[in-house]
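Deliverable D4.2, example record:
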Amino acid sequence: QVQVVESGGGLVEPGGSLRLSCAASGTIHVISNMRWYRQTPGKDLEWVATITVADTTTYHKSAKGRFTISRGSDKNTVDLQMNSLRAEDTARYYCAVLLRTSVTTSVTNYWGPGTQVTVSS
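Output generated by the structure prediction step:
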């Protein structure tokens, strides 16, 4: 069994910063990549950023230059540093981890419950 948990959300003023963290635990054989998504009520889930096992990073155009995805000190953790936050960044942020639980299983996405980020003055 695999658990994914996000933390670090909260209320911040426009122009401020927040750092989100995500930790995967449980029966993990190997992680392929870790991603951040976000969603606001009534809108589709939006991909934000990805980091691969080789530490290659990619970003949605809205996040590029302001957000940084990185692996934590524990290889099963990933952070999202968000700077210059805007009102339109307000959303629930989700972490998704693509991994195998054993040599014989296929890669599967595991999701956390999300953490709320609100950007408002």
